[in-house]
């Protein structure tokens, strides 16, 4: 027998059988789906869309969407393995239905509902995995949800958070920058972008750009002004920071936030000078910071930040002398210690009214309470220190 003829005959027979098996029947594909025979349903619908008369009908695409939706969202790995691109194919098919059908038609409405169901499936799966602290797997589900709704702010936020907790900061940047572009980023989202650019990417210029954008978007949030000053100081752009703030104050002299920001600038600059051992320059800058904070208090006596920061200024000024005493040997202490301590105590007492005022404005703020407790302790006002400490303990215990 001629083996070549036998091979050709066998191959022809196989092709004929395969063609017979999948004729591209949309009805048959739907029937396979009902029976959960996803492999045959997929094979049938894949042939169906290659037939022109089928490809022009929305029903074909609707059935294709259902089949690939079932594959993409199945909890059975054997089913999802049928087609790794099932999710994209389901979405494309349903979008085709939306293009072909009138808005209020049954298929249009069901396709829309099914797209929402696909999105919801991956959002819920992601949420469950997130709750189990499986952040990488949660991220994978949120990213699948984004294929359905690429501009959904909730999904972008979830994906960004999961990416951050998965230590995939590049993805966090991608999703949070998209939120910023869509004008749906909260101040916390922008703060995270700033942190990643500054702390992880070491890109101070980009961080500064983001800070200035944040100041436009969230003018009431003073932390961005403070962050700008901090960045400018780090980038050794002190004069630029001072010039910008002083010009702004000249135009708007009753703006509390501007005075606060100028105070923070001098405050930070004083700390830098102190670290460099330039005590006189540090004192000068602390004095300028105090002047700015007091101006803010004059405009708004109920400003917590202005009162708190003024109190801290006095703490920092007193600390210089306390540190000197701490570093003295016994001989120097006997000679200079008491006078230095008296001077430090006097400065610290001057700051007490401001910190006390701050804690009266925000009585549950732990930062203010702890600072006040330390001031009382340093001044040996033990009854008051213990009362504040009890308050701190109660707040930290959730009482």
Automatic annotation (TrEMBL):
It comes from the Bacteria. TPR repeats lie at residues 119-152, 270-303. Keywords: Signal, TPR repeat. The keyword Membrane does not apply. Residues 1-21 form the signal peptide. Gene3D superfamilies: Tetratricopeptide repeat domain. This is Tetratricopeptide repeat-containing protein. It comes from Reichenbachiella faecimaris.
């Amino acid at each position: 027998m001629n083996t070549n003829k036998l091979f050709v005959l066998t191959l022809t027979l196989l092709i004929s059988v395969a063609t017979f098996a999948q004729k591209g029947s949309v009805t048959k594909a739907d029937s396979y789906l009902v029976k959960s025979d996803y492999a045959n349903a997929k094979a049938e619908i894949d042939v169906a869309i290659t037939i022109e008369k089928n490809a022009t009908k929305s029903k074909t695409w609707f059935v294709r969407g259902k089949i690939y939706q079932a594959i993409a969202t199945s909890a059975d790995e054997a089913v999802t393995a049928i087609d790794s691109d099932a999710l994209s194919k389901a979405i494309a098919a349903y979008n085709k239905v939306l293009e072909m059908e009138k808005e209020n038609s049954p298929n249009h409405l069901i396709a829309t509902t099914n797209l929402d169901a696909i999105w919801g499936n991956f959002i819920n799966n992601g949420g469950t995995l997130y709750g189990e602290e499986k952040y990488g797997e949660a991220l994978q589900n949120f990213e699948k949800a984004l294929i359905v709704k690429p501009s959904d702010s909730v999904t972008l936020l979830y994906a960004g958070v999961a990416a951050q907790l998965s230590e995939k900061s590049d993805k966090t940047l991608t999703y949070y920058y998209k939120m910023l572009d869509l004008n749906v980023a909260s101040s916390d989202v922008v703060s995270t972008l700033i942190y990643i650019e500054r702390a992880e990417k070491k890109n101070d210029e980009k961080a500064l750009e983001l800070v200035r954008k944040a100041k436009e978007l969230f003018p009431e949030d003073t932390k961005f002004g403070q962050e700008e000053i901090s960045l400018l100081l780090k980038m050794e752009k002190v004069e630029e920071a001072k010039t910008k703030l002083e010009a702004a104050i000249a135009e708007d002299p009753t703006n509390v936030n501007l005075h606060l920001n100028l105070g923070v600038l001098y405050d930070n600059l004083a700390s830098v000078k102190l670290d460099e051992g330039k005590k006189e320059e540090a004192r000068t800058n602390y004095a300028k910071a105090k002047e700015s904070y007091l101006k803010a208090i004059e405009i708004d006596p109920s400003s917590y930040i202005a009162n708190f920061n003024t109190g801290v200024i006095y703490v920092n000024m007193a600390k210089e002398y306390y540190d000197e005493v701490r570093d003295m040997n016994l001989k120097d202490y006997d000679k200079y210690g008491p006078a230095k301590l008296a001077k430090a105590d006097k400065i610290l007492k001057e700051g007490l009214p401001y910190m006390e005022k701050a804690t009266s404005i925000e009585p549950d703020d732990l930062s203010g309470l702890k600072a006040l407790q330390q001031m009382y302790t340093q001044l040996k006002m033990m009854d008051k220190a213990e009362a504040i400490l009890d308050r701190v303990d109660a707040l930290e215990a959730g009482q």
